[in-house]
Amino acid sequence: MKNIDFTTIARGADSGYQSASQMVIDNSEQWNDLWQQHTSNAEPPPPVPKVDFTSYNVVAVFAGEQSTGGYSVEILTVETKNSQTKDLPSLVITVQYNQPKPGDFVTEAMTYPYHMIKIPKIDVNKVVFEQA
């Protein structure tokens, strides 16, 4: 396993993208579409963060609708793992989903936790999302 450095683009609990989802984005059209959905609840929506897709990909994880505050999602590690059967390695992305502990004070509001990161573009044969 080899660790890959990454940069957080955005993280929080109020995404306009409301489905639980994990994705890797490798072009600006997809990125613009996703960012528009993500910021659809913001007025005015923030500009799309610049990503050079010749050198980088975006990994986005959405936890979906949660009934209260106190939930979060965090991409902990991004690693390449060599495959015995294929020439190209796998990309393993470890994600931690956090929820409030019993007795925690939480906001009584729907939340939509998310984390989006930028990683160097790497040729891989598959991407695996693992829960921490």
Topology diagram in text:
Blueprint: E1 2-3, E2 7-12, E3 20-25, H1 28-38, E4 56-63, E5 72-81, E6 90-98, E7 114-120, E8 126-131
Parallel strand pairs: 6-8
Antiparallel strand pairs: 1-5, 2-7, 3-4, 4-7, 5-6
**Spatial order of the strands forming the largest sheet:** 1-5-6-8
Average pLDDT for all residues? 95
Unreliable spans: none
Helix percent band: under 10%
Gross morphology: globular
Description:
- The protein is mainly beta and 132 residues long.
- The chain has one domain.
- The chain is 8% helix and 41% strand.
- It contains one helix and eight strands, in the order E-E-E-H-E-E-E-E-E.
- It has one helix at residues 28-38, and strands spanning 2-3, 7-12, 20-25, 56-63, 72-81, 90-98, 114-120, 126-131.
- The strands form two sheets. It has a four-stranded mixed beta sheet with strand order 1-5-6-8, with no helix packed on it.
- The longest helix is centred in the first third of the chain and has 11 residues, at 28-38.
- The radius of gyration is 16 Å and the shape is globular.
- The two termini are 16 Å apart.
